[in-house]
């Protein structure tokens, strides 16, 4: 898919392949703010998510799934 450059607004990532678990839509990515506040909110609601740090930028990413299996990616700029 090439390099991933953060941008303003909503980014939708799809695939030309069709998988049984996600179909053509793999995940939706959002630029986000307040990484600590969002972490606490997700934890308080019992939402399972995976957190990672982007090695080249130091940005934080959260990955979670809505009930129908579509992924949501939240991107927080390095503080």
Automatic annotation (TrEMBL):
SUPFAM superfamilies: Glyoxalase/Bleomycin resistance protein/Dihydroxybiphenyl dioxygenase (SSF54593). It holds the Pfam family Glyoxalase. It comes from Bradyrhizobium archetypum. Residues 1-77 form the VOC domain. PROSITE patterns: VOC (PS51819). Signal peptide: none annotated. This is VOC domain-containing protein.
């Amino acid at each position: 898919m090439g390099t991933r450059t953060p941008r303003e607004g909503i980014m939708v990532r799809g695939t030309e392949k069709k998988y049984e678990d996600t179909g053509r839509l793999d995940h939706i990515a959002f630029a986000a703010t307040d990484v600590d506040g969002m972490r606490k909110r997700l934890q308080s609601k019992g939402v399972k998510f995976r957190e990672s740090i982007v090695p080249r930028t130091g940005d934080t990413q959260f990955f979670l799934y809505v009930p129908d299996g579509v992924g949501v990616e939240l991107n927080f700029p390095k503080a």
